[in-house]
Design a protein that fits this description.
- The protein has helices spanning 6-24, 30-43, 89-102, and strands at 48-53, 56-58, 61-63, 68-73, 77-82, 106-111, 121-125.
- By secondary structure, the chain is α+β, with helices and mostly antiparallel strands.
- The protein has a single domain (6-125), classed as Endonuclease, Chain A (3-Layer(aba) Sandwich).
- β2 (56-58) and β3 (61-63) form a beta hairpin.
- It starts with 5 loop residues before the first helix and ends with a strand.
């Protein structure tokens, strides 16, 4: 898979997340799903960076914000993981802000704390 093919990359992320969820089920900590998803994606030959910090640029200042993206796959797709009862608007706002600030084009918000993972996946596109 080549860098730049964000649809194929996101498809692999979703497939890997389904595999992890099928094996582990809901109810675990977000950090467990993060490690397992990272492993599954790397096993498939994808480059994965975890807990990627990024600064906020406001006007002429750069602020080391302490914000961290859960996963960036192939330097293209942001993946924000949750293990919560329900996705809230603030979770959606978070990934939209991450896309805008980083300039990435695609993000996936994945909540592992659901009976069927397909109900816990939301895709977001950055309107550059």
């Amino acid at each position: 898979m080549q860098v730049g093919d964000i649809n194929a990359i996101s498809g692999q992320v979703v497939d890997a997340a389904l595999r992890v969820h099928s094996a582990l089920g809901p109810g675990l900590l977000e950090s467990v799903y993060e490690k397992c998803l990272q492993h599954e994606l790397q096993r498939r030959g994808l480059e994965v960076k975890t807990q990627v910090g990024f600064p906020i640029v406001y006007g002429d200042i750069r602020i080391e914000s302490g914000l961290k993206i859960d996963l960036i796959v192939m330097n293209e797709v942001i993946v924000e993981l949750k293990a919560v009862d329900q996705i809230l608007p603030v979770h959606e706002s978070q990934i939209i802000s991450y896309l805008r600030i980083t300039g990435k084009r695609l993000g996936l918000l994945i909540n592992f704390n659901v009976a069927l993972l397909k109900d816990g996946i939301k895709r977001f596109a950055n309107k550059l």
